[in-house]
Amino acid sequence: MITQDTPSSWRQRLTSGAAVALIALSFAGCAGQQGKKELTTGSIPRLSKPVQSMNATELAAATESIGQTYERNPKDREAGLNYANLLRMTGRNEQALAVMQQVAINHPTDREVLGAYGKAQAAAGQLDQALATIQRAQTPDRPDWKLKSAEGAILDQLGRSPEARLRYREALDLQPNEPSVLSNLGMSYLLAKDLRTAETYLRSAADQPGADSSVRQNLALAVGLQGSFQEAESIARQELTPEQAEANVAYLRSMLSQKGAWQQLAKADEGNTN
């Protein structure tokens, strides 16, 4: 039961999963559209299958293999980026941050490295530092839409939603209809409990070419929070392996199990404004 929670603890529990999804998605393109889609090339061992289709055992083996490459040469830019990326995917955020600190020391002006460093800082909860890193990576004469979107995600986590949405719209000016940015914009409204606006942007994101499962997972959450549970589960299962689909549905159900608390929080907020 969660009825004994205070409104502030409801807010934390209800938005924490959505916030993580937003942060993760915002950086999906931050290092050259790598994320779960692919890793950088060069001296990195060739993987047996795409990272997004790996199970936990395969992902752990890939992390160990690339970690050994990084250990042999910590100054190898690609090895460092890929190792940190895999560490984040396996929940080892503090270690990923330590790796990216070393990569950033060796490549202090590399925008891709700085973007990945900001991602590691955000994943480790260092939001103010992450914001500074992402802003340092950005250049006014050659703005990067991926960094704009990443900055927006961090601003959302800092409670600066108007600024965040401005960054998303600037990113969309540079990269129109980009699904990851549209999804981040939708998640910004979801975090503010404006579910209908969130759904509008998330449906637009899901309809774009290149939209991945994380975009559809966010859409499923927005739809489910409005009571359309069957449609939400259908969206969460789309274009995934059975194992991935079950993981997505489990996440969705865990978030939707708190729907009553979401509604109670909304009533409490309304009472506070009267």
Describe this entry's structure for a reader.
With 274 residues, the protein is mainly alpha-helical. The protein is globular. It starts with 6 loop residues before the first helix and ends with a helix. The relative contact order is 0.11. Keywords: Repeat, TPR repeat. It comes from Sinorhizobium kostiense.
TL;DR?
With 274 residues, the chain is mostly helical.
Report low-confidence residues grouped into runs of 5 or more: 1-16, 27-38, 40-44
**Global shape:** globular
Along the chain, the helix and strand elements come as HHHHHHHHHHHHHH
Number of helices: 14
Query: Helix content range of the residues, please?
Result: 55-70%
Number of E-state strands: 0
Please outline the major beta sheet.
Answer: none
Q: Rg from C-alpha positions?
A: 19 Å
Q: What do the pLDDT scores average to? A: 80
Q: What portion of the residues fall into strands of 2 or more residues?
A: under 5%
| Ends distance | 28 Å
Protein name: Flp pilus assembly protein TadD
Pfam families: TPR_16, TPR_19
InterPro entries: CellSynth/LPSAsmb/PSIAsmb (IPR051012), TPR-like_helical_dom_sf (IPR011990), TPR_rpt (IPR019734), UCP035836 (IPR014596)
Keywords: Repeat, TPR repeat
